[in-house]
Amino acid sequence: MLNPSEHPHRRYNPLTGEWMLVSPHRAKRPWQGQVEDTPPDTRPAHDPTCYLCPGNKRAGGNANPHYSGTFVFDNDFPALLTDTPTDEPETHPLFRIQGERGICRVLCYNPRHDLTVAEMDAADIRPIIDMWAEQTLDVGSRDFIGYVQIFENRGAMMGHSSPHPHGQLWSTSRLPREVDKELIAQRDYFAAHGVTLLADYLAEEQRRNERIVYANTYWTVLVPFWAIWPFEVLLVSNRPARSIPNLDDAERDALSDALHHLTVRYDNLFRTSFPYSMGFHQQPTDGGDYPFWHLHAHFYPPLLRSATVRKFMVGYELLGTPQRDITAEQAAARLRDLPDIHYTKA
Ligand SMILES: [Zn+2]
Ligand SMILES: [Zn+2]
């Protein structure tokens, strides 16, 4: 039976109609994120104290292999567990609680401790995309997994647990809140228009050409019309692919190229290793048919005016509506006009 002080679960907020996730068992997890990021030229290629570097021992007791490419392991302190009871012990409509199952993995991008995606060539980024695809298929094929969320927290400002280049995979039985909202919008749009919402949106953005930062044959990088974070970006597949595993060879190479051009511009904006949270939204993995789903990634960076001046979501934004100062068009122009050679190499 579900024990809310021990098992991962979600709780319903009847004021907003939205669910949130609680992971009470996770308080013991290690934390190397309080270590400030050191400048690129002073970081070691291998850090003996890093629990993601090849050959090092992790906090959970396991040791990493001497990996030379990408490396995946089950999170030693996962937010979700595979064997959580899924019953709903509360019956009161204002106190809804449900056990939630899932798998959490750590996705090491590269053996080099001192690299970031922005400092990698497109050829170094391609294996990361193949890893995202493999992991989506592997975890998504489990009966109890309905959604696979791939994401990355980059930089101490975003609370990353280690400066080593890595992303994460969190998967759940039920759809996460943001994915659920986007599913409804995309489903309703497709039903009304017979084309994906993002295909129509992209066509209109291309016609207006005010917010596009970078584009290649298969991908478009733009500051969305509705962006909240100062330099928020949407990375959209030009074709309505439904998931990362659906991408063919040329589309994966082009995605590496788009990620390279975006992250280099981000670093060049304030000549700093630019912090962000990013992640992909792909179709659910519950076996349903999702012709309306259009693969994309969101980048949510907090910096506003310099390497240290950030935007906060406070006051009116927490209580009312998110607000921004510079327009999406101004932010797109700033990013578009930056050089696409990394400032440390220029
Ligand atoms: Zn490391
Ligand atoms: Zn999305």
Explain the overall architecture:
With 346 residues, this protein is an alpha+beta fold. It has helices at residues 122-140, 177-193, 197-208, 249-269, 315-319, 328-336, and strands at 9-13, 18-22, 71-74, 97-99, 102-108, 147-154, 166-172, 212-215, 219-222, 233-237, 276-281, 296-300. Strand 8 and strand 9 (219-222) form a beta hairpin. Helix 1 crosses helix 4 (249-269). The mean pLDDT is 93. Residues 47, 50, 52-53, 113, 164 line the site of one zinc ion.
Features:
about 350 residues; alpha+beta; three-stranded antiparallel β-sheet; 12 strands; binds zinc ion
How many beta-strand elements? 12
Hey, roughly how much beta strand do the residues contain? 15-25%
- Derived from helix and strand composition plus strand pairing, the structural class reads alpha+beta
What's the Cα radius of gyration? Answer: 20 Å
Uncertain regions spanning at least 5 consecutive residues? none
Biggest pleated sheet: 9 strands, antiparallel
Shape: globular
- The total count of helices amounts to 6
Describe the structure in brief.
This protein has 346 residues and is α+β, with helices and mostly antiparallel strands. The chain has helices at 122-140, 177-193, 197-208, 249-269, 315-319, 328-336; strands at 9-13, 18-22, 71-74, 97-99, 102-108, 147-154, 166-172, 212-215, 219-222, 233-237, 276-281, 296-300. It starts with 8 loop residues before the first strand and ends in a 10-residue tail after the last helix.
